[in-house]
Amino acid sequence: MTDSARWKATVYVGGLSSYATTSNLHDAFIPFGEISDISLPKNDHPNATEPHRGFAYVEFEDVEDAKEAVDNMDQSEFFGRVLKVSPAKPPKSANEGLGSKTAVWEQEGWLAKNAVDDEDRLAADGSQSAGDTRPDDPMQGLEGLDVAGPKLA
């Protein structure tokens, strides 16, 4: 299974109680289809009292099973907490998008999408000056007004 297909068959389960375990999650989500993996990220903080971070990823064998799990388990109660179940989003690369250590315009994907060559820029500038048919300024004629609102008698 490709990475994109795996992410389509994975659901995010948020709002988990500290009592939730992978075994409990498996029991709760198995009615919707064959589960290939459950990831319950551990708490990174050494002083944390919670055994996990409060969310999990449940990966199904089939994309339809994942959709069924989202439809049936979202807003359901699990160990006294209301779950938020949604399709999982693939993780972003550390070198792409906002928050990366590389400037946006230096990223290959951004350049491919937003690059404009000189010919296109000249054509755009020429079309604006040739047919300057911009509508009148809607603020024209309001220069003398110093108070907003209707005139009082």
How much is the average pLDDT? 80
Low-confidence stretches at least 5 residues in length (pLDDT < 50)? none
Largest sheet: 4 strands, antiparallel
The third-level CATH topology of the domain at 3-87 is Alpha-Beta Plaits
Q: Please, could you describe this protein's structure?
A:
By secondary structure, the protein is α+β, with helices and mostly antiparallel strands. The chain has a domain at 3-87: RRM (RNA recognition motif) domain (Alpha-Beta Plaits). Helices cover 29% and strands 16% of the residues. The chain is built from 5 helices and 6 strands. The strands form 2 sheets. The chain has a 4-stranded antiparallel β-sheet. A hairpin with a 2-residue loop joins strand 4 and strand 5 (81-82). The longest helix has 13 residues, at 118-130. It is extended and about 70 Å long. The relative contact order is 0.15. The model has no long low-confidence stretch (mean pLDDT 80). Pfam families: RRM_1 (PF00076). This is RRM domain-containing protein. GO terms for molecular function: RNA binding. Residues 9-90 form the RRM domain. Keywords: RNA-binding.
